[in-house]
Amino acid sequence: MPSYNAPLRDMEFVLKEVLNVDQLTEYEKYSEADGDTLSAILEEGGKFSREVLTPLNVIGDHEGCKRHEDGSVTTPTGFKDAYEQMVANGYMGMSQPTEYGGMGMPGIWHLAAGEMQSAANMAFAMYPGLTNGAIKAITIGGSDAQKTTYLPKMIAGQWTGTMNLTEPHCGTDLGLLKTKAVPNADGSYKITGQKIFISAGEHDMAENIIHLVLARVEGAPAGVKGISLFIVPKFKLDANENPGDANGVTCGSIEEKMGIHGNSTCVMNYDDAEGYMIGEENKGLKVMFVMMNRARLDVGMQGLAQSEVAYQNAVTYARDRLQGRALTGPQNENGPADPIIVHPDVRRMLMDTKSFNEGARMLVYWAGLLEDLEGVHKDEKYVEKCDDFLGLLTPVIKGYLTDRAMQTTIDCQQIYGGHGFIEEWGMSQFVRDTRIALIYEGANGIQALDLVGRKLARKGGRALMSLNAEIDAYIAEHEGNEKVSDFIAALKDAKTKLTEGTMWLMQNGMTNPNNAGAGSVDYMHMMGISIFTYMWSIMAVTAQKAIDDGSNDDFYSNKLITGRYFIQRTLPMIDTHLARMKTGAEPVMALTAEAF
Amino acid sequence: MPSYNAPLRDMEFVLKEVLNVDQLTEYEKYSEADGDTLSAILEEGGKFSREVLTPLNVIGDHEGCKRHEDGSVTTPTGFKDAYEQMVANGYMGMSQPTEYGGMGMPGIWHLAAGEMQSAANMAFAMYPGLTNGAIKAITIGGSDAQKTTYLPKMIAGQWTGTMNLTEPHCGTDLGLLKTKAVPNADGSYKITGQKIFISAGEHDMAENIIHLVLARVEGAPAGVKGISLFIVPKFKLDANENPGDANGVTCGSIEEKMGIHGNSTCVMNYDDAEGYMIGEENKGLKVMFVMMNRARLDVGMQGLAQSEVAYQNAVTYARDRLQGRALTGPQNENGPADPIIVHPDVRRMLMDTKSFNEGARMLVYWAGLLEDLEGVHKDEKYVEKCDDFLGLLTPVIKGYLTDRAMQTTIDCQQIYGGHGFIEEWGMSQFVRDTRIALIYEGANGIQALDLVGRKLARKGGRALMSLNAEIDAYIAEHEGNEKVSDFIAALKDAKTKLTEGTMWLMQNGMTNPNNAGAGSVDYMHMMGISIFTYMWSIMAVTAQKAIDDGSNDDFYSNKLITGRYFIQRTLPMIDTHLARMKTGAEPVMALTAEAF
Prior knowledge:
2 copies of one chain form a homodimer.
Chain A: H1 8-18, H2 35-63, E1 66-67, E2 73-74, H3 79-88, H4 107-120, H5 122-141, H6 144-155, E3 159-164, E4 180-183, E5 189-199, E6 208-217, E7 228-233, E8 235-237, E9 243-246, E10 249-254, E11 265-278, H7 284-320, H8 344-376, H9 380-415, H10 418-421, H11 427-437, H12 444-455, H13 458-478, H14 485-511, H15 513-548, H16 554-570, H17 573-582, H18 586-589
Parallel strand pairs in A: 3-6, 4-6
Antiparallel strand pairs in A: 1-2, 4-5, 5-11, 6-7, 7-11, 8-9, 10-11
Helix pairs in contact in A: 1-8, 2-4, 4-5, 4-7, 4-8, 5-6, 5-7, 7-8, 7-9, 7-11, 8-9, 8-15, 8-16, 9-11, 9-12, 9-13, 9-15, 12-15, 13-14, 14-15, 14-17, 15-16, 15-17
């Protein structure tokens, strides 16, 4: 049975020592968000993840969700109880606005707590995760009345939420969607159509489910310009705003999937279901995309979370499993063999994973802090910078982190040998669960296109210029610090190569957009590697400073070792990506479609 | 439902046009192995794979194997029928010796036919695959009486075979194995112990199962020097050599696995089972390893096979699925959207896979031909060369092909978006089935160690020197051929870098063996990439010649395009591997075991 212990030391290092999230207390909104409360919340969340969610992960995988003949769905044994405990712990409202019953704490607190939940039980964590997305959408686009009606119950965890975008014939290309909305006399709409892949679409954990549904009002323009967003509650609300009559929406079936079995991925059938428009007609995608951008950070986080839990278990196994002898001579002379952690190739996989996890954690938390600062900072220029950075970082966090997590979870599984392939040890589940993160909320290829086709060019390339300026300033500030000179040199190197890639894209993407398309994923990885190098430099400087200030805590020296592994053994990938990218569209597009 | 069509055109190109397998007819043993018969066999095998095995693949995945209370095992619906058809088609005996009832055709014929079976239904193909392994072991090490008793029935498919190596506490490190063998008065042994992960360990498809079991004769030396190999039939043979009384071996349980559900992976309990030693006492591993080396080629082939079937289905989906518009303007103006094969990033994944598949096929078939030639060639030097090359190629084929196939099957699944994640479309199965190929028959890290620690150094490095000499000669021969000058230049480049890597290993592996261990997987990939570049150069020269000779068949121009993709977009990976390797053991080993 796999275990999970929230990496509290590392989380606190990033949150407090590197990012200094306590700076948020300077703003009135977060004046009570002090570090001790954060520590207590993380401690509590870690305990809940370890003791409650982790044991349910395997159960969820084995049992899956069951749809009954009446369309109702039962979640795996223990999920409902755990959900109630989670709600009682106040998790749902942690970073939600106080006016609707939330605690009003910074988003980054919720992000850190979310990492633990996703690591312990990704399928479970999606239920509150989807609700958060729906809360976000209603917060952004809903009327005051809608907010008052829905947000308090959702924030209290009494009702959950879903996102209904995909239809059988369209996922990425939402312009093709067909679900229709016919206006009723009272201002509501009749929604009819079929949605697929609806996570948490139907379940037994809450008294109502608030579906957010993209649909096309009769007569709306074709394509993406004719899409509106609707609230469609599973049970219509009665005069007291309590769940009343069943609405015209049912779960038609549950998908049989490769992973996340504990989450009910539903086909949802809408048949004259009563819906209420959010925001303006035909402007539904705008709201949905603000919400989705946030959700993409969460998906990147899922990649990190699965990589972390896979890593922890692989380390345990590598320390326990006795097999073979160290190449340099026995390390466990009295035992029948050495623990496999002595073998360099096992180390390689563990170090690849560890240096990824810690870099990813830093990156996601940084993005979380930027998001919080964007909401409270007084300086318009600074807010603009936060927004620019987040625009750039979001596709990279979603795409690069989940691509890498696929490999690291596979590597951690590999460390188990044959035991990794059988379900009993749980490593297969980490790989299978991770797999969806490369697909949903915009497949990784779409993230790369978003980065290359939109985010880079936006506002004359301001975001990347601004990031580069920050990196240059960082290099200038720390160039004299000899103890971390290898990190600073690596950062320069990464920046130079990323810039070369960017220039190539600008020059060649103009003449033929397929040049940009063919190199987009390589470019996304280049940017991921570069930003990781920046993250590692910042962490290295912080760790080195702690040592210089007299700390004897091995944590800091180990942090430097791990960072050096990254710059020595992961950073070189950037050369291959650059070389691949610069071949352009020609080799990629040369075959006719028939010749495949 | 996924489909599979054996890539006969490409198989024939490699077999006949590039490798000229007809050369084998010059040897008496294969005088009847003419190209027309081969074509007929491939055609027939393709039909059987497409029509019989492919539809059973999904069924096998869903149903799995069922163990009953008495320890008997039922295979998935249709497997037994398919097995009988396969036997009736003469597949089992194709390349087996005529003296025991085989057809005596070249091993490469069987290899090509095996590719189709593995692509169509990997779990099914393992039943005859394991039998072949057992046949091989008995052929190598068995007494004449054992051969006469067992081989004809196994070659006829009447009995199947298994390999019993792994025990709960040991897989890679067989020196730790505990299963014991106590001599009986009649020269047989009583075998007692538990074996795990036994593929095809128990099933309902044949009247007897011949288990080959590694065990330790009482009082034998500790470690690998005290291991013997035994034949343990499921049913002991009666006086007429027909299956009689049950032996003391039973299936204790079937493992629940990530993939290959259609194959019964058993825990096998031996309780005073009657066994008969193969070959000499304490020399069991020698026989087992000769057999395993052959099996490693088959596992590499499984990687190719899964990548091929995943590719074929991804191509179909990419042509059918309408989503978005080409970056360069609509390609399907009358439709609601363009087929996703217009998108460069979809192309990238297809081309990565196609260029891998075709290179892998060439490499595995080349190894197959070397194996056949090794058995019949008159020139001792040539035979030696074949053996050297096979020693070097085997770990690379096993390790590099399956590592790459993991990525390509994931990429092909990615092309399906959300549909790739649900089991209905079958892409998940290709990924899950492929996963085991990186683990069994020696995990890929073990292949890399075998390459770096044994194969490179063997006989003063003769194998690589000999391969390099062959490549140098090839470069010299074709350097003047301007139309393929990019391939020849790429080959030179690859060889230079591989040589640099080899030199580094030699210099630094001596001073600290962990330097070799830490770089072993990177080196294995370098060698894989280099040898692929050689394979692609040979195929390019052949294709270009066909064009120069006046062929208008697009096959040849497409082959050149695909090869150019490889040298432009995969070959650059070699730089990253070299850079990673040259960092040495230090970054990999710097952390203490406790610090992970």
